[in-house]
Amino acid sequence: MAGGQGTRISNPEKSLISIGKKSILESVIDSLSSLGFSTFVSTTGNHANVARLATKKGSGIIYTSGSGYEYDLRQSIAWLNVVPVLIVPADFISSDRLLFQRVWDKGAGNRHSVVTFTINGDLCGITVFNRIPLGGEALDYESVNIESRASFNINTLSDLEQANHHSPSL
Fold first, then answer.
1. Domain positions in the chain
2. How far apart are CA 106 and CA 18, in angstroms?
3. Which CATH number is correct for 14-161, 3.30.70.2570, 3.90.550.10, 1.25.40.10, 3.30.300.30?
4. How many other C-beta atoms lie within 10 A of the C-beta of residue 41?
5. Could you give the CA distance from residue 48 to residue 71 in angstroms, rounded to a whole number?
6. How far is CA 168 from the centre of its chain?
7. Structure pTM?
């Protein structure tokens, strides 16, 4: 998911910010691809540079309406029309290269329709959907915590500073 406005960090294309040697989006795509996942980047028409980078990295592009995270998320899952599906925000970065595999192993096929994850007790936006959400229906969910070193959800300038401080490991 890479279609946000980046208001808290004053950068609408925050997924393109470099931390270490790569942009956040490149790190997400590379981590997922190295584990054998097919990647698609959901964004809006307002983020041409995001779409360009995603295409260059071999990801498919899903253009959403930009009507808000929940609506765009549902739109993206409906477009894919396959479950289980792993959702990773494009403002999340981790040096833990097996993190996404551990998330997938705990989430895919779980008896709950939605499995949300926290990393070290903090919300991170990583979710596995085991059912395609229809309309505005509420889906049953479970929240699972995973311990992981040097993982950051970049929402504020402080988060960005922390991630840059750890950038040699990212």
1. 14-161
2. 30
3. 3.90.550.10
4. 26
5. 20
6. 21
7. 0.86
